[in-house]
Amino acid sequence: MSPKTNECHPSFIRGLWALTYRELKKWLNDPIMLIMFILQPLIWMGLLGKSLNIQGLFSAGNINLPPQIPIPGSAIIYPPGVSQVILNGTWFSQLFANMGINIMQRTFGVTDYFSYMAIGMVSMIVVTATMFSGMSIVWDRRLGFLDKVISTPVSRATIIFSKILNSTLRAMFQASVILALAYILGLQLSSNFTIINIIGIYAAIFLLSTGLSSIFLAVSIRATRMERPMQIVNLIIMPLMFSSNIFFPISMMPEWLQPIASANPLTYLTDAIRQLTILPLDISALIIDFIYLSVFAIILAIIGIVLSWKYLVK
Amino acid sequence: MEEVIRAENLTKVFNKNIIAVDHINFSVYEGEIFGFLGPNGAGKTTTINMLTTVLKPTEGTASILGFDIVKQANEVRKVIGVVPQEYTADEDLTGYENIMLCADLYGVPRDIARKRALELLELVNLIEFKDKRVETYSGGMRRRLELACGLINRPKILFLDEPTLGLDVQTRAAIWDYIRHLKEEYDMTIFMTTHYLEEADALCNRIAIIDHGKIIANGSPNELKDSLGGDIITITIKENADVTDIISSIEKVKEVKKENNTYRIKAESGEVTAPIIIEALRQKGYTILRLSVSEPTLNEVYLEYTGRAIRDTEESKESIITQRIILRRARGR
Ligand SMILES: Nc1ncnc2c1ncn2[C@@H]1O[C@H](COP(=O)(O)OP(=O)(O)OP(=O)(O)O)[C@@H](O)[C@H]1O
Ligand SMILES: [Mg+2]
Fold first, then answer.
1. For B230-295, CATH number?
2. How far from each other are the two terminal CA atoms of chain A, in whole angstroms?
3. Do A88 and A213 reside in the same domain of the chain?
4. Which residues of B touch A22 (CB under 8 A)?
5. Where is mean pLDDT largest: A192-196, A249-253, A268-272, B139-143?
6. Mean pLDDT for the stretch of residues B248-273
7. Which of A260, B58, B140, B193 could disulfide-link B36, Cβ–Cβ 3.0 to 4.6 Å?
8. Average pLDDT over residues B60-76
9. pLDDT grade, residue B103 (50/70/90)?
10. Domain coverage including residue A261
11. Residue A305 pLDDT greater than 70, yes or no
């Protein structure tokens, strides 16, 4: 009789946290999956970063000159009293080695390739984590959980934002794991790395994964089986990776690929993180990175949220 | 009595050609248990989904406590509790966490929610399993958990979609005890679907029979039975003669069917009419070997209106549930 039923005061924050917490919990309950996700970039780091020893090509050890190199023949007219000219081999070795370091420095910005590509792997995990967690909505729909949530007074915005938040948090967490592993494996931080840089790194990751997960949510929200979103991920993930600077700098790419790479948001995320970790910080480049990432995030988030909103209830 | 649910021309068409619910009209009054009865695919779940704001009607509308299900969906959601046909609890969370999740979604104040969650778990006998993951629950336990979740916001109106589907007899009885108890305790109106006829008969104040998306009969179980035209009297006589005319001429006899020497007679107030028939036959010198008077069951009502017996009970619960899952996937919902 009493109309006091309306003690319910669904709040955005509480609902958001409840739904996000649920997913994080599910995810943490599944450590195998967690390891699998981290394994992939780890393998890449081992394969490319450690075994394909690019800087080794140019290192001093590769250039073997005897300490003294006699120059024979009649090419040189000997000054009087001298029968032979001898080059200082050690000096030359040094010269070549320095040239190698110079080339590394000029193309990659750092002298060791491992550091360069390890950061690329951080970007990669952000993309994969974001995309795969966006798909969890397919299960929610299939198992009827989504219908139940829709029948509660929690707002649609809450449902959508919890999905995006969940993807973003996962991406940040996995990126942290990869960064930590890379550091253990020998990532060389630049001398001006501080705690503040870490905030910058998370901000950049946040932007990209918010944008990507919104659009991914829109793709999966109507899907009733995993296959469709899965195929889309498989289709775009490789081109996305290889048309960015995660393995090689844009300047080393063929000309036709360069404009694509310069539009690829992954390039900007990777550059931002590199600026903040291994490169001597170039503020203007960093600002450009952040502007690009913000614009990307805002546009994709708007499109994604609008579409998800539309498709959430049939 | 106050009208708490009112549906007007409520219609749902899927994919532009599957008419799942076809212009139905009905009212549910405060405090009653209203049953939706119908075979598989009749449109029961679709109706519940519309009433609980999960699906938008294609045409027509409904109101719940005066709130329009489309325009005031949010108000509707606050006052209803839903126990869906499928198990929707999160397998990876514990029973307690699942209830608290519902509480968070409904926005039940935290301290009240904690207390109530334990109360409800106690009520549905899951208190000892409250910290076990739902993955480890049996079907009956899951059903009870769903029930508890649906009650966390003290709904004024509770929607139960086949709450006992696939449960064994004891669990079904137990669930119904909980539901009756809860209804008294919390003073709720209950809208339920089922295809167990005895269940509907025993529990519902009023029933609507739905088939092919249309309501074909509507009333209290007794009204529905009465609408068949009374009780069934079965008489067997010794002689090989046709006494149909004698019986038909008696007042209150509606219909007589002969089968060898046995007559199935449909008549109003069977207890009174039976002695009159006996008397009439005796006077003509016939010997009565056997006689029974029975009230029609809902089964007969169902048969009469839908033209077929309800297909259920024999199917194993596993197969029903498997079919459900397959169906859900196929439909993509
Ligand atoms: N999402 C959907 N897409 C297409 N058709 C659907 C969808 N949902 C239900 N239907 C169809 O609508 C009709 C009614 O389905 P509904 O689920 O409401 O039946 P029901 O009475 O609940 O049956 P059951 O007793 O099996 O639960 C069926 O013919 C079904 O195939
Ligand atoms: Mg159903």
1. 3.30.70.100
2. 34
3. no
4. 90, 93, 97, 101
5. A268-272
6. 84
7. B193
8. 93
9. very high
10. 15-52+110-311
11. yes
pLDDT given for residue B65 in this prediction: 94
DSSP B94: B
What is the spatial distance between Cα B283 and Cα B265, in angstroms, rounded to a whole number? Answer: 19
- Please indicate, yes or no, whether residues A100 and A219 belong to a single structural domain of this protein: no
Residue B274 pLDDT more than 70?
A: yes
Task: Say what the pLDDT of residue B41 is.
Answer: 87
Between CA B11 and CA B19 the distance in angstroms is: 8
Regarding predicted confidence, which is higher, B262 or B326?
B262
What percent of chain A is predicted at pLDDT more than 70? 87
Among chain A residues, the shortest Cα distance to B30 is held by A1
Residues 6+ apart with CB under 8 A from A262: A250
* pLDDT for the residue numbered A237: 86
The whole-angstrom distance between residue B49's C-alpha and the CA centroid of its chain comes to: 16
Is A151 contained in some domain?
yes
At B66, list the tokens. Answer: 């005066």
Specify if A8 maps to a domain.
no
* Torsions phi, psi for B65 (to 5 deg): 50, 35
Per-residue pLDDT at A79? 66
Residue B246 CB neighbour total at 10 angstroms: 18
Query: Domains in chain A: how many in total?
Result: 2
Longest dimension (CA), chain B: 79
Looking at the fold, whether A82 and A168 belong to one and the same domain comes out as no
Decide if B57 contacts B49 (C-beta within 8 A). no
Of residues B173 and A206, the one with the higher pLDDT is A206
Look at residue A9 in the predicted model and tell me its pLDDT.
81
Any idea which fold B3-224 has? Rossmann fold (3.40.50)
Q: Which residues from chain B sit within 8 angstroms of residue A142, using beta carbons? A: 328-329
At which of A108, A128, A147 does a domain end?
A: A108
Cβ–Cβ below 8 Å for A151 and B80? yes
Report yes or no for ipTM above 0.85.
Answer: no
H-assigned helices in chain B: 44-51, 73-79, 95-106, 110-123, 139-150, 169-186, 197-203, 221-227, 244-248, 270-283, 298-306, 317-331
CB A264 within 8 A of CB A240: yes
Selected residue of A30, A152, A312 to mutate for chain B interface (largest B Cβ count, 10 A): A152
- For residue B327, pLDDT over 70 is answered with no
Alpha carbon of B333 to ligand 1 centroid (Å): 10
